[in-house]
Every structure is written in C-alpha cells, then in structure tokens.
Amino acid sequence: MPGKIYLVGAGPGDPELLTRKAWRVLQSAAVILHDDLVSQEVLSVLPPSAQMVNVGKRCGAKSISQDEINSLMVQLAREGKIVARLKSGDPLLFGRGGEEIEALRRAGIDFEVIPGVTAALGAAASAQISLTDRRHASRVVFVTAHREGGTGLKNERRVAADTTYVVYMPGTRYAELAAELLAAGIGPEIPCAVISRATTKNETIVRTTLAQLAECTAAVSPSLIVVGAVVAAGAETRAQNAEFNGKLDGEILQLALQHPIHDLQGRSGVE
User: Fold this and answer.
1) Backbone angles phi, psi at 191, to 5 degrees
2) What confidence tens digit (pLDDT) does each residue in 80-113 have?
3) I need a labelling partner for 85 at 20 to 30 A (CA). Which of 27, 158, 200, 240 fits?
4) Residues 127, 132, 170, CA angle at the centre, nearest 5°?
5) Tens digit of each residue's pLDDT (9 = 90 or more) over 4-58
C-alpha cells in the first residue's frame, strides 16, 4: 500500500493551538519530519511511537537541503509510511509548502495540507493587537525579511497609512528593515511590536517606533515585527483594561474585608 504525506501546521508554539485534525494525524503518523522552529512545547506532546526527524533550516544554516527533504518524503511514502511534515505556523505561509506540494505532485504521491495558526495571528493575539481596525487599518500585509532584495515594499507609499505590516523572519536586520519601511512611506513615529516565541512560556514583546527599531536588540527566533497604528491602539486598550482591573481588584478586596468571616488579622476565619 502506498503511503501518504500530510503537510501539517504546528501553529505558533502553544500545543493547544494545534487543530483537532492536526492532532489526530500526528498521533497516527509513523514518521514526523519537523522544522527546527516547531516549539519544544509542541514536540513534547508528539507520540513516542513516531520516528522524529529534524529537517529544519534556521538563519540559512542547513543541515538538509529542500531537495533532500522532498526526496525523503517521496521515499517514505513509497515505503508505505504515513508521514507528517510538521511546519511551524501554517504550511502555506513562508513555509516552502508550495515547493513541497510541487515535488509530491510530480512524484505522484498522495498528500493533504492541514492548515495551522500562522505566527502573525498567534503573536497578535498574545500582544492583544487587532491586525485590522476600521479606525486604523483596513489592510494587512504579510512580508518576509528572509529574501534577496528586501521585503518588496517599494510600492506601498500610497497605502501605508491604512495598513498593518507583519514582517516574518526579521533576524538581526532591524536597521535595514527600518530603512526600507521608511522608504516605503511609513512614518518614523509609527509604533512597532517585536514579538518573539509567541504563545509560548518564553514569549517576549518589545514595543518601539519605526525610528527606534534599529536600536532594539534582536529577538530570539522565531520572531516577527508588527508595524502600524494598531500597535498603539492595542497598548491603549491594555492600559484601560489594567486600570479597570486594578479598580476592580480594589473593590473586591474591600468587599472581602467587610465579610463577616474575615477576622481582624485580615485572614479568613474558615479553617
């Protein structure tokens, strides 16, 4: 019997963001070929019965080429194996999914794509940034910094004010990215958020402006940068929520102190 390849989105890092279908396929896979950027949290919940193979490429350092990955998938499928090709985020967004689909089609291998939560959505949720907002942005642009010739934003000057930009894989190129974004017509005062390891316990979020982006310390991969007015809007919302929650906590404390079972030492009288 011929095998089958599943191109599976692992999501941004939190295992609970795996789809039910992705989880089901991963539990039944004989071999899991995973990217280097798939989080340890996700890897830790994969079945011990599966053969795990790291086929990742990070920052240009390749332990295995894309052609070798394609050949390995074809070989395993012809051996009758069920294979999960596990990719960080979504397989079809900056994940070379198109190249792998083409190779599998050319070889006549049965395959299926299982989408995942892409990093931009996971990061935006963690940072409480609405990527679109009718007051600030009616357009979202996903670009990658990991390409020759920059991000390709040269024609953005007329629409930059109404757009949220999400830059995937910025690496350490903050100064170059800032220069390119400024040249595209995005103002130096526009807020940015650098989000690293989104949705995991090691997540970090640094907020700055485009003018100051070059001065930021490069974040640990995987990371991305969100640029746009919505970043500031998210910060305002969080500040309002924090103020509200602070007042609410104070009111709850006052009510607790008034409770008849609360003793004079500020401790509950219930043992």
Assistant:
1) -75, 150
2) 999 999 999 999 999 999 999 999 999 999 999 9
3) 200
4) 55
5) 999 999 999 999 999 999 999 999 999 999 999 999 999 999 999 999 999 986 5
The secondary structure element, H or E, covering residue 231 is: helix 229-257
Instruction: Render 190-217 in DSSP notation, one character per residue.
Output: -EEEEEESTTSTT-EEEEEEGGGGGGSP
Catalytic residues: 35, 57
153 and 172, same domain (yes or no) = yes
| Beta strand ranges found along the chain (DSSP E) | 4-9, 31-34, 51-54, 57-58, 61-62, 82-87, 111-114, 139-144, 163-168, 191-196, 204-209, 223-227
Helix (H, G, I), strand (E, B) or coil at 4: strand
Among 73, 98, 75, 74, CA closest to 84: 73
Q: Sort 261 into a burial class: Cβ within 10 Å, 0-12 / 13-18 / 19+.
A: exposed
> Of 85, 117, 149, which one is at a domain's C-terminal end?
117
If we measure between CA atoms, which residue out of 18, 24, 22, 110 comes closest to residue 73? Answer: 110
Tell me how far CA of residue 154 lies from CA of 105, 169, 174, in angstroms: 35, 19, 17
pLDDT of 255 > 80? The answer is no
In-domain check, residue 113: yes
Residue 19 CA to residue 21 CA, distance in Å, equals 5
Q: Quick one: pLDDT at residue 269?
A: 36
- pLDDT of 264 > 70? The answer is no
